Amino acid sequence: MEAFTMKTPAGDIQVARWQPVEATPAGSPIVLLHDSLGCIALWRDFPSLLAEASGREVIAYDRLGYGESAPYPGPQPATFVADEASGSFATLREALALERFVLLGHSVGGGMAVEIAGAHAEACEALVTVAAQATLEPLTLAGIREAESAFAEPGAMRRLARYHGDKAEWVLRSWVDNWHSEAFDGWTLDDALARVRCPTLAIHGEHDEYGSLAQPRRIASRTPGPAEPRLLPCGHVPHRECPEVLAVLVANFVPDRP
């Protein structure tokens, strides 16, 4: 893995790149977008597994406010999902000269991947959403509240701080408060889904505690690609619960390499 810092007007962003060990990378890179509490480190071994399975370079970055990136300058706006297409991702694309790419987003990162695929439709070769939310539903809100209560237990915030440092409280509040805000009421990805032009695979865990099967079905039915989602025998975090299976599934889906 190669890690480096990318300068942006809003602050430094941490970036990591993985290359396949057994071959020279071929095809466009796969860019990973993390979830609401995530960061590069929490992808664990999945990026290296995906690089090997696909033969492609894999790129991940900590969004502003997360992981080893700089703090976010203030409260995260309710438009943060859509904003990623013209924000950190656009800066990353320009800095790394990514003419074409594949996107994989987990949870809210999946929603961001949809927004990016729609906004950069000329360059996005394929889109994979993993445990993504396409609309607001009671199960999502209840799951977030349950997690918020768990973080109130002694020592729980220390585990979050292990990955986000003194930004941990901001990370938690951005997740809980935005999803329960009045501004987020009625939120959907429908407009962004209508702009997606590339093959799309919606992956979901059968036991996902943050989203029903209506979520991936909505994504699959409104984008090019398989009309039904691909279900895995796991919960909300397939890249930790069944990383090898997920890596092979994604590698088999992305367009053939030249």
TrEMBL record:
SUPFAM superfamilies: alpha/beta-Hydrolases
Name of the featured protein: Alpha/beta fold hydrolase
Keyword Hydrolase assigned: yes
Domain (AB hydrolase-1): residue spans on this chain: 29-136
Pfam families tied to this protein: Abhydrolase_1
Classification of source organism: Bacteria, Pseudomonadati, Pseudomonadota, Gammaproteobacteria, Oceanospirillales
MF (Gene Ontology): hydrolase activity
Domain of life: Bacteria
Record keywords: Hydrolase
